[in-house]
Specification:
The complex is a heterodimer.
Chain A lengths: L1 H18 L14 H12 L1 E8 L6 H9 L22 E9 L2 E9 L14 H19 L13 E6 L8 H10 L5 E5 L7 H17 L13 H13 L2 E2 L6 E4 L2 E8 L2 E4 L8 H11 L1 H27 L21 H100 L5
Parallel strand pairs in A: 1-3, 1-4, 4-5, 5-6
Antiparallel strand pairs in A: 2-3, 7-8, 8-9
Chain B lengths: L1 H10 L18 H12 L1 E8 L6 H8 L24 E9 L2 E9 L14 H19 L14 E6 L8 H10 L5 E5 L7 H17 L14 H13 L2 E2 L6 E4 L2 E8 L2 E4 L8 H11 L1 H22 L18
Parallel strand pairs in B: 1-3, 1-4, 4-5, 5-6
Antiparallel strand pairs in B: 2-3, 7-8, 8-9
Classes of the chains: A alpha/beta, B alpha/beta.
Chain lengths: 444, 330
């Protein structure tokens, strides 16, 4: 914890030198005591750190956590998430309070059992993203409150991503996950169960992974350059070893009279804290002893600010929260981006505009409907006309027919009458001749 | 030796009512004749390795057959991209030992279980296995058959279980459930040098229990044990399965001997040392004692099941003349 306040002091020193001329003091003033005051204050407050571990089950995440912090977070009575099979990805957190040298640390470990274990792992990163966003949102809300006495910092400061030691390269799942999380949280990739690989295989594997990480433009946590040359050398050495190949164990074994933590194989003992065997010590030093504060700072200054600006931009653009986080809906009064009154004005304007738009739309709809109806009426009128015409024509045709028939009938009648007359005439003639004959009747 | 045989023949009581022999005939030389014949014709063995990438499948096959027979050595680069779908790649070699020639085909399945969404990644494999059965069936059903039908059926499928130390993954159980009825599956725990001996025992027990609970019958299947001797042998093997193996094709000096192994900073893992891993057991089981049995079970049981199913559906196959058959893939 010594490094924590030193880092903050370095920054203070730098900012002062940039803008002012340095003056020499004529006596002892005493502000050199400032670091001590900061130190005492921080120690009293205690520190918080949230560490997230992600990886498929069986990669030794729980063992590594136990080894890092030398506690049994997951003991036999409280079996860790690894002992239970999960059907969906869960996000579980466990808090532990550790004290060392008068400094107390509230450590929160967030585990993700079930990650990458199903047959279909699409979107298994979604619960993780939701969790991180919800913690950022909590902090944002706490920051924007009127009464800010206690602001617990539950944001995820660091995400350790465990890569399976296949020896070939990153899996598609690894790449997808890291791509989606590299701008939300500090991602530190680790090679899990590194005792599977021989030193040559390990080298090749690390190179392959770094190549793929660069190819896909994944931004893993970068160690900041300091002014110290020695520190820089150390940092460069760490950078060469990325991603760190770790082995975890809490079992103490005796090797050459010394008690070490390690894993006992029939062919030897893999020591956890031996730099030649694995990079566990590098990870522990980096995570706890030198860069814990830096991780928190990067989370606060970079990732959290990203989230905050995105969230607030979304809110002020539309007047409605359109961001897709599944966290609780934020209330207007608590967003401190603009003054509440101005916001209400805007809201009113928005509302009025909306109303106008709706009105215009309805008018349009009305017009359209009227046109339609008119059209329909016209159509039916035309239809009626047509029918009327047709019927008229029908009637005329029938009339003509009838006329025709009548004519024919008249003709027939005339013919018939003519015939009758002829017949009558004949009859008359016949009767006349008969009479004549009668008159001339000679009775023989 | 002949006298012994004579006595044995004389004193045998055949319960099936056979007559005792009065002299030496020489029937037992048939074994020698068969041996000579098989040596001349050689035999085929097709082995398929399934598991997601990085589990040491190719290395193990190389170690098993002590030669570079896997697809990795046939010229593929080490860090080729993971394919987007499961591919089936078969590589054949002829290896010879003691005058016996074996045509070994290793079928690799890159891309299995490597994607984010692995639904149905077992389908290409299932299809391939059925295609081989189909090929054999077509040849068999021909009017004019070839003298020796080329056998491309998969005799044995080695399934690599990832050494998580906790449980079988969902993909593992799904795959084995679906394929244990069409091919002989031998599960092995890959990269066993990840686990200490206690962890290995625990893991094995858990895996065995899970396999039992899911009803997965791996080879040697209990139902095909023919007699008590077989049963006791196979029981012993079943107790020890799945074998925890380590593969390597590099040699190192250990105690003056050259052994295959993996050199780590804290010791050398010897592949053939039974205290270090169970590779020797797997090799003996697979090659030295059960090779022929694997082929027989494939032919008599799995292939027959396929054939019965095929002939029962659609009114069966019609024998086709040889001009229509596909060419053999030798």
């Amino acid at each position: 914890m010594y490094m924590l306040y030193e880092a903050s002091i370095n920054r203070m020193r730098v900012s002062v030198c940039v803008s002012l001329k340095q003056r020499n003091l004529e006596g002892y003033v005493g502000f050199a005591n400032l670091p001590n005051q900061v130190y005492r204050k921080s120690v009293k407050r205690g520190f918080e750190f949230t560490l997230m571990v992600v990886g498929e089950s069986g990669l030794g995440k729980s063992t590594l956590i136990n080894s890092l912090f030398l506690t049994d977070l997951y003991s036999k009575d409280y079996p860790g998430p690894s002992q239970r099979i999960k059907k969906t990805v869960q996000v579980e957190q466990s808090k532990v309070l550790i004290k060392e040298g008068g400094v107390q640390l509230t450590l929160t470990i967030v585990d993700t059992p079930g990650f990458g274990d199903a047959v279909d792992n699409s979107n298994c990163w979604q619960p993780v993203i939701n969790y991180i966003d919800s913690k950022c949102e909590d902090f944002l809300n706490a920051e924007s409150r009127v009464n800010r006495r206690s602001m617990p910092d539950n944001r995820v400061h660091c995400c350790l991503y465990f890569i399976a030691p296949s020896g070939h390269g990153l899996k598609p799942l690894d790449i997808e996950f890291m791509k989606r999380l590299h701008d939300k949280v500090n991602v530190i990739p680790l090679i899990a169960k590194a005792d599977t690989l021989t030193p040559e295989e390990c080298q090749l594997f690390k190179k392959q992974i770094m190549k793929e990480i660069q190819e896909h433009k994944i931004k893993i946590y970068e160690f900041p350059d300091t002014e110290d040359d020695d520190d820089n050398k150390l940092i460069r050495k760490i950078k060469e070893k990325m991603p760190l190949a770790v082995v975890g164990s809490n079992v103490v074994i005796e090797v050459n009279g010394k008690k070490v933590r390690g894993r006992q194989y029939p062919w030897g003992v893999a020591e956890v804290e031996n730099g030649e065997h694995c990079d566990f010590t590098v990870l522990r030093n980096m995570l706890i002893r030198t860069h814990m504060q830096d991780l928190k700072d990067v989370t606060n200054n970079v990732h959290y600010e990203n989230y905050r600006s995105k969230k607030l931009a979304a809110v002020t653009c539309n007047g409605v929260d359109t961001s897709k986080t599944k966290g609780q809906l934020t209330k207007y009064g608590t967003i401190s981006g603009k003054y509440p009154l101005a916001q209400m004005e805007e809201e009113r304007r928005e509302h009025v505009m909306k109303m106008k738009k709706m009105e215009a739309e309805m008018e349009q709809v009305f017009e359209m409907k009227v046109k339609e109806k008119k059209q329909k009426l016209k159509d039916s009128e035309a239809e009626l006309e047509r029918r009327h015409e047709q019927m008229k024509r029908n009637l005329e045709a029938q009339y003509k027919e009838l006329e025709e028939k009548r004519r024919v009938f008249e003709e027939e009648k005339a013919n018939w009458e003519a015939q009758q007359r002829i017949l009558e005439q004949q009859k008359l003639d016949a009767s006349k001749t008969m009479e004549k004959n009668k008159k001339k009747g000679k009775i023989f | 030796m002949h006298d012994q045989n004579c006595c044995a023949a004389n004193s045998s009581h055949n319960s099936s009512g056979g007559s005792t022999l009065l002299g030496y005939i020489g029937i037992d030389t048939i074994i020698e004749q068969m041996r000579k014949k098989t040596m001349k014709t050689g035999f085929d063995f097709n082995i398929m390795v399934v598991g997601h990438s990085g589990l040491g499948k190719s290395t193990l096959v190389n170690t098993l057959f002590k030669s570079h027979v896997s697809r990795k050595s046939a010229g593929w680069a080490r860090d080729e991209k993971i394919p987007k779908t499961v591919e089936i790649k078969a590589v054949s070699h002829v290896i010879e030992e003691g005058g016996v020639k074996m045509k070994l085909t290793v079928v690799d399945t890159p891309g299995f279980g490597d994607q984010i969404n692995n639904d149905n990644c077992w389908e290409p494999i299932s299809k391939y296995i059925n295609e081989q059965y189909e090929k054999f069936l077509k040849e068999e059903v021909n009017i004019t058959r070839k003298k020796r039908i080329p056998d491309t059926r998969v005799h044995c499928c080695i399934y690599f279980i990832s050494p998580t130390g906790h449980f079988l993954r969902q993909l593992d159980t799904e795959f084995m459930k679906r394929l244990s009825h069409s091919v002989n599956i031998i599960p092995v725990i890959a990269k066993a040098d990840t686990m200490t001996l206690e962890e290995r025992q625990e893991f094995k027990q858990r895996v065995r229990k899970e396999l039992e609970v899911s009803g997965i019958e791996f080879y040697p299947q209990k139902e095909f044990d023919e007699d008590m001797e077989d049963k006791s042998d196979n029981d012993k093997i079943r107790e020890a399965m799945p074998f925890a193996v380590v593969g390597s094709d590099k040699e190192y000096q250990v105690n003056g001997k050259r052994v295959l192994g993996r050199k780590t900073a804290w010791g050398i893992v010897e592949v053939e040392n039974p205290n270090h891993c169970e590779f020797a057991q797997l090799r003996d089981f697979l090659i030295r004692s059960h090779l022929q049995d694997l082929k027989e079970v494939t032919h008599n049981i799995h292939y027959e099941t396929y054939r019965a199913k095929r002939l029962n559906e659609n009114g069966g196959l019609h024998p086709i003349s040889s001009s229509d058959t596909q060419e053999s893939n030798l």
